[in-house]
Amino acid sequence: MLSRTAEDLYWMARNMERAENTARMLEVSFRMSMLPSSMDREAEFQPILAIAPGDGTFQDHYDKLSFENAVRYVALDPENNGSIYSLIRNARENARARRASISSEAWETLNATWLQMQSFDFDEVRRWGFRDFFDWVKERSHLFRGVVFGTMLHDDGFRFLRLGTFIERADNTARILDVKYHVLLPDTEQVGGYVDYYQWAALLRSVGAYRAYRRIYHDSIYPWRVAELLILREDMPRSLHHCYSIVLATLDELAKEKPLECRRLAGQTHAQLRYGQIQAVFREGLHEYLTRFIEDNHALGMQIQEDFLMTPLAIAEAV
Predict the structure, then answer these.
(1) pLDDT in tens, 282-319
(2) What is the pTM of this model?
(3) Would you give the distance in Å from CA 93 to the centre of its chain?
(4) Cα separation, 76 vs 70, whole angstroms
């Protein structure tokens, strides 16, 4: 497969996955804003910009950090290259460039999503309902993945789509857990202590894990169990372990017998997740563990650029 084609497919999947995860992050902030809290409301929305910083120009355009302004910037701003609007636009452009490499159904799904996305402004989203809008973004992402899985040849193009999806999903799960953990667990409380049930439930719902948690643990929601579910459980579809199981298997199929560095990096991280224990994670410190994971995941993404794709490593790092 040509490197340029592989790159467009890889980033098509990453852009759609990031749009979905941005919607999930906004949804959990919306749920938490509805709950009684002693926390300053501006501080409560600050994690949105930490998880989805975009082009970092929020302060240049808005004088106050509120949920409404966060939605304008993180979801709808066409000038913010990290907004849901921009991510769906970029995914559609990737698809348009590679229409011959994807199924007609996959193209039609992305094109229809982009056409509808253009019709949204803040007043329309508010009339429709914020949660309905977030659900729409998630559903369109789910539809795209389902159509890709059900209509495309499971060849190298499909593998690059899968690779982009799960590299991005792992990054976003780690960021949501890290930032929200520190918001929900203030410095004055002991790490691993009790935190309000409904806030942790909102966090679990943001990654589609609430029912899975209840089914596995049959108990109240505790931070260390949330961390275990989202980091170490291979059977949890959005966990770091699950993501890296698929990333590693996909790289094995792409690399075949070649001793590529990206395959070694993915195997190293997968082994840590496969054989890790939650007690060891908390001994290291959850924030420190997740920060290291995010750095390692980023390094893997850069190495994939170097080993397979068109953009040289030095240029990718600069971007």
Answers:
(1) 999 888 999 999 999 999 999 999 999 866 544 444 44
(2) 0.88
(3) 20
(4) 9
